[in-house]
């Protein structure tokens, strides 16, 4: 688990990312939880003009793209095994 902040976060603003790894028969399942968006004020730059479920979708798509790129990188580098399923949960 780690704290997530970017350059446009005030000192007291933060979100939290938890990454879980679970051994499964075909490799490793990676589950990522990114919490704390509801605590950021409406109109916060990190929301990119979105509110409510649209913020969750945007963040989920961003993490999905990032984790897919990581999986593809590992697959082409001969990692210890493919990551078969990446799951995003609110």
Brief digest:
With 90 residues, the protein is of the alpha+beta class.
How far apart, in Å, are the first and last alpha carbons?
15 Å
H/E element string?
A: EEEHE
Helix content: 25-40%
Structural class per helix/strand content? alpha+beta
Biggest sheet strand order reads 1-2-3-4
Walk me through what this model shows:
The chain is α+β, with helices and mostly antiparallel strands and 90 residues long. The longest helix has 24 residues, at 53-76. The chain has a 4-stranded mixed β-sheet, covered by helices on one side. The chain contains 1 helix and 4 strands, in the order E-E-E-H-E. Helices cover 27% and strands 28% of the residues. It has one domain (2-88). The model has no long low-confidence stretch (mean pLDDT 85). The relative contact order is 0.19. The chain has one helix at 53-76, and strands spanning 2-4, 15-24, 27-35, 86-88.
Secondary structure elements and pairings:
Elements: E1 2-4, E2 15-24, E3 27-35, H1 53-76, E4 86-88
Parallel strand pairs: 3-4
Antiparallel strand pairs: 1-2, 2-3
Q: Which descriptors apply to this entry?
A:
90 residues, alpha+beta, four-stranded mixed sheet, 1 helix, 27% helix
């Amino acid at each position: 688990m780690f704290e997530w902040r970017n350059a446009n976060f005030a000192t007291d603003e933060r979100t939290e990312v938890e990454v879980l790894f679970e051994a499964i028969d075909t490799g490793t399942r990676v589950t990522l939880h990114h919490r704390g968006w509801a605590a950021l004020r409406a109109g916060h730059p990190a929301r990119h003009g979105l509110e409510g479920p649209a913020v969750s979708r945007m963040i989920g798509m961003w993490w999905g793209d990032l984790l897919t790129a990581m999986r593809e990188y590992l697959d082409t580098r001969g990692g210890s095994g493919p990551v078969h399923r990446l799951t995003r949960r609110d």
